[in-house]
Design a protein that fits this description.
The protein has twelve helices and ten strands. The protein is of the alpha/beta class. The longest helix has 19 residues. Bound molecules: S-adenosylmethionine (SAM) and iron/sulfur cluster. Iron/sulfur cluster binds next to loops.
Length: about 350
Amino acid sequence: MNDELRHEWTLEELRALYDTPLLELVFQAATVHRRHHNPREMQVSKLISIKTGACPEDCSYCAQSSRYNTGVGAERMMDKCQVVDIATRAKAAGVSRVCLGAAWRQVKDNDQFDRVLEMVRSVTDIGMEVCCTLGMLTENQAKRLEDAGLYAYNHNLDSSEEFYETIITTRTYADRLQTLGNVRKTGMTLCSGGIIGLGESVKDRLKMLKNLAAVQPHPESVPINILSKVEGTPLAKAADVPVWDVIRMIATTRLVMPKSDVRLTAGRVKLDATAQGLCFLAGANSIFSSETEFMLTKAVPSPSYDADRALLEALGMTLRPAFANPNSPRAAECAASCERQETALGAG
Ligand code: SAM
Ligand code: SF4
């Protein structure tokens, strides 16, 4: 298996990978995975919804869109100490990354953004990787997040460009690519992936991987969500994703972007332990976990810290500490600055 980092995959090549006989595909992905990652290590993240509900966008899958009657109402923005409390408990549970999510179309240069920057500084100060997923960003806003010490920015492409237009009409794929470009102009790491189970074709899934792999360098983290069906949204009755499709998607993502963290994210709660184990063997090396048994909102369930600890133990897996990603120069930089800070505090 040739696992050089490539940015110009053809759809034919991707289809040939995806259609490989399943266990052979898993074996190939597992082989490449071990060459670039510690196969026994799992990076665990915790999502915190710092601003929930009343989003003006019409993403057909989303519990937080104001267009749909999902029971997820608008909540005021969290304050910093609430976020630091949750993050501190998450760290004690072995979580190394906190993802601050806001139900926004885009960031606005206002006091709410200033408060997010404060949250980024405070959670980074407790020695955790911080990711934000706040919608679309300008170049200057990306720079301000970087200056605040943000480790990663999440902005998903969700699917192919053609299919994207059928599930979201209030913005374009080009808008999403623009934000990826703005993040790439900083030293922050990029988290970008998508969702399967929206009604897309395999071709759409592979076009998404093709677009993600075209980003230079590859996104350091690629979330593969399985649609979590939310009552009240247009996709509430979508067909289930066969578990074999999930495993194929994880394995193909691993082969296409060998050094990236492949994150098995929304919808993992629906997979049994064996299916999750096969996904980890095929190269998924990052998950979300939670103390509240839901991800961002009550509408999208998540496995709990305890359930995940038991699963990872049964599989003989350990937790990857913060800033320990061997494939990310930013991780080394942040680890060094944490060390300097600790030494300075220790000397003080
Ligand atoms: N408002 C920000 C944005 O749109 O980028 C953050 C949205 S959400 C916290 C981050 C990602 O979670 C979305 O981009 C989408 O890919 C995924 N997501 C949201 N709802 C989902 C659902 N019901 N099932 C699966 N994935 C979902
Ligand atoms: Fe809004 Fe993001 Fe949900 Fe879309 S995915 S409705 S932009 S919170």
